[in-house]
């Protein structure tokens, strides 16, 4: 017997992992060698055993591969970072381990109530990769609905499934024939299906079904783990956001408490608007502008431009309507109000966005500002009353106890023995309403107080006592500034300087006469002093309210023809008359002053004689003409 016909050869075939067909070789050789039947039966038995061992070894190798694949899948799950990557790895391993052409996975859509393609491996059809299946449609829909694995060796011909045109079209375009589908389970719920499919008919062994079920279990775990991770991340993000909100709120509360304490302390110790603005910007950052009801700046901290008046009015109106601060572009506005009265506004340009608590700080600052402004107004009114009462006593007649008046003045910082001028303001400063009169008095009180003087209302007229020597300059300044406040021309007459309490009443009377003279001369809306008007001013001041009519009548009857002639012809007869009288009636000196020839002066005076009459040079007529020319010159600035 040849060695090659012994059972040992089967061991050698096993050792080199020979194909199954090679195990027939020893039997064929033994028959050819003519071995007896007993020997052939023995070899046949050895072959059967060898093939069994070979099959066992093949199953174990396959099992090792499967276990290795499952181990790798578990490792992927342990290091899960991206769900898509893990699901793609599971589907790819299913295709490799089962040796199929295609592997894919569908997941249930709870919102739409169907299942859709999630991952594919080995697919070539775009239509197939976009498939959506209703529960119960096709093999996958049936698996998703029942939670039971299904296998078909020829999908298109299998009548166990509900076929649809869309599903059959996608499967046909992919060219699939044999399909195995197993459910993805989470507890008792089915969340999807894992598939292994072939483009040719093939059976799927029980071990292959078990392997795909294991991979499906891993996929379900991966999906659930990813869901839990997503929920955990979302919860952590919410906790982080909540923590940030709590920290921000806590910081806002602390800022609000600090601001409240600071502003309360400001009110208690009598702080000013600059202190409020500094406190707000120190807490909130940025720059702040405080404005009064007229839009004038009360305080400013930091670099901030004053908005347009129209923008301020609109924003303040919105803030008052809404009862809180409002935003306009990069600026925040908070109305400063006391009841229905508008006192001004706070304008904030913050460095960062304001939260609600920060807005409350700005609004609280507006409230504190209102309190300070009301307090300041109350103090100013009280001080104004004290100053007004003092001035009223100073200009009253008879004067009582000059030393007591000096002591009262010293207490409010006024030295009565220093030079002062008295300025009387005309009634044209007042509107019809009493509030306008009070507004003028309030302005005069502030104006005089800022200059170390006094102001009062006396007999329906406002009078100011201002330190200094220039009565005319003081009158013009008061007329100019008060005109801007009232929006109408204001007349102011002044006299002085006066020194000592005893002379103030006389000086005030002269200022009133000067005011009356300005009205008589037609110079309403201007300011002047008695010194500037001279004896004419004193004379007209004594005339009273009828002075204006008398002056006009006197001018018309005395030098009216000359003035009319000059106006019509552009001549200088009135100027020539003034020069003639000014040099004592000398023709030569008048000509020299006028820079003309003596004959020209003579001709002009002859024309004056024709206009006024031959007796215009008689002493009594000459005095009237000179007085009329003086009055005309004093009235000229108003024209």
TrEMBL record:
Record organism: Micromonospora aurantiaca
Database matches in SUPFAM superfamilies: GAF domain-like
Phylogenetic placement of the source organism: Bacteria, Bacillati, Actinomycetota, Actinomycetes, Micromonosporales
Official protein name in the record: GAF domain-containing protein
Family listed: Belongs to the CdaR family.
Pfam families linked to this entry: GAF (PF01590), GGDEF_2 (PF17853), HTH_30 (PF13556)
Domain (GAF) ranges: 82-233
Superkingdom as given in the UniProt entry: Bacteria
Family matches, as InterPro entries: CdaR-like_regulators (IPR051448), CdaR_GGDEF (IPR041522), GAF (IPR003018), GAF-like_dom_sf (IPR029016), PucR_C-HTH_dom (IPR025736), PucR_C-HTH_sf (IPR042070)
